[in-house]
From TrEMBL, chains A, B:
Gene Ontology molecular function terms on file: LPPG:FO 2-phospho-L-lactate transferase activity; magnesium ion binding
Name recorded for this polypeptide: 2-phospho-L-lactate transferase
Enzyme class: transferase
Keyword Cytoplasm part of the UniProt annotation: no
Pfam entry (one): CofD
Length: 317, 317
């Protein structure tokens, strides 16, 4: 090892494997490309939930029980905003607010999202790189039985209750991955590409579709390893399984593999599923992906590091 | 009494007399026209220091020792912002941040500053009205021996250290008082106009010059009572005395009276000075203002109410 690794990640689930990779790789070797299609403008601030979950997780500041936000957070601003009758459905802690104020100020001053994110990563003392999937805004719109909803309205405000019919990524046509990513893809030092166990539809799809990134990943010499976010028919975190049922896709690791195989032919070399899903191996292999069975449930830091090592050990095909 | 009263106010000193007026007048009778030339855009938020000092003071939430901000405030967002190397020279408490987030959101949604301010006043339970002097931005620029500085940079960041040569109010040409003020001035119910003991140059001047408001006040039938912010050659709060010395104006109540008499001829009917400045009466009378001697130092609520009653008792001339 010693080479560079690219991980594609959404929020919580992806951040767990990213943390494992961060811990087992040399400082600076990991580049996490974060979904930004969940980002939104709220209370005048630019909020990037997946980038922040990654920054907080990789810097050891994440609230582990809650799954988002900062450990030891206080909520005085939200309480005061509630007393004013302001919008408090998206909970912003006092310290978390500082991140959004800092980011919004820098963006307003003309910095691009890559620079702002790198600045935050540096100040938080990260040993890995975090990159936004796009400098320009891409925003997921969820087509539901109640009409089209901006992602955070669907996800947080409506707690994923409306039934999903599909997704649209506004701004995708104009979006391009940041130059640093293009450089990494062109570098012979890139040894592995890991698609973290994030939501395929609202976290991974927008990343892969930004500037048709998936074609560049497919053509890169480094093998692409994807880890299933669905284990034993359940999403370990978030609405992936519920979404798949509503989209008439089997809510299994095989369903995820089929989605990737169909949407991004030739992209994925290895598809890692949990030991509890070992019976799905044959079906996955028949899709042209190589199924790999491993313990993918990441509870402890040890679990995260072990799965990271496992993914990194898979050789080029 | 029972009629309407208009008070012109900056921050702390003006808010004290405004509170006295608020306490002795029937609910709804007091209209405080607040200076907005101290307002600024900071961390992506629109911050209105004088409006907020008035809102917090009149709703009983002000931090009395500090002279600004909220009682019992916490500072977690600022601490986190400091850790990020963000701009923390303008201290924003966690609960105070909610006010700025609420305001900025409403302004971004297209509400005008009057509506936003009235909304805050209503939610904070005020019994008086607070109006911004202008719906559109007016921004004080301070000409100093170190060049021109935006007001809050001079006032907070540089702690009023640079020597002042003059002031410029950017945006003044396009600014107009809000329609509610025009209505009040046209109403026969308006019984008194009080110029609070605020800084003449950076708090009262911008208000009086917005849309040449001073001419409308001069022509209104209600008497205009001004209270000197300078007592015994000292500004009770803020840099007024230091500014006057730097501007080569005697830093006395007489100096303030002369400034008003010259800049706004015929405007002021009564000029209230502190008992310790009684010897200045003759000079003030010679300027064509009627000097009134009273105890103007407002420490307790009682002091504020007494001075308020005193101002309200002065009859039309």
């Amino acid at each position: 090892m010693g080479g560079e690794v690219l991980a594609l990640s959404g929020g919580v689930g992806g951040a767990k494997l990213s943390l494992g990779l961060d811990r087992v790789l040399p400082a600076g070797a990991l580049h996490v490309l974060a979904n930004t299609a969940d980002d939104f403008e709220h209370l005048g601030l630019t909020i990037c939930p997946d980038i922040d979950t990654l920054l907080y997780t990789l810097s050891g500041r994440a609230n582990r029980e809650q799954g988002w936000g900062l450990e030891g957070e206080s909520w005085n601003a939200m309480q005061a905003l509630e007393a004013l009758g302001g919008e408090t459905w998206f909970r912003l802690g006092d310290r978390d607010l500082a991140t959004h104020l800092w980011r919004s100020t820098r963006l307003a001053a003309g910095e691009c999202l890559s620079q702002v994110t790198a600045g935050l990563a540096q100040r938080l003392g990260l040993r890995s790189h975090v990159l936004p999937m796009s400098e320009t805004p891409v925003r997921t719109l969820v087509d539901t039985d109640e009409g089209e909803l901006p992602f955070q309205h669907y996800f947080v405000r409506r707690r994923c209750e409306p039934a999903v019919r599909g997704f649209r990524f506004a701004g995708l046509d104009a979006a391009q991955p940041p130059p640093a990513l293009r450089e990494l893809l062109a570098s012979p030092a890139l040894e592995k590409i890991v698609i973290c166990p994030s939501n395929p539809f609202v976290s991974v799809d927008p990343i892969l579709q930004t500037g048709e990134l998936w074609r560049a990943l497919r053509d890169a010499p480094a093998p692409v390893v994807a880890v299933s976010p669905i284990v034993a028919g359940l999403a370990l975190k978030g609405p992936a399984a519920k979404m798949m049922a509503e989209l008439q896709i089997p809510a299994t690791a095989l369903g995820v593999a089929a989605h990737y195989a169909q949407a991004y032919p030739g992209l994925i070399d290895y598809f890692v599923i949990d030991s509890s899903d070992a019976t799905l191996s044959t079906g996955i292999d028949q899709l042209g992906l190589r199924s790999i069975v491993a313990d993918t449930i990441m509870t402890t830091t040890n679990d995260k590091e072990r799965l990271a090592r496992y993914c990194l050990a898979l050789e080029g095909v």
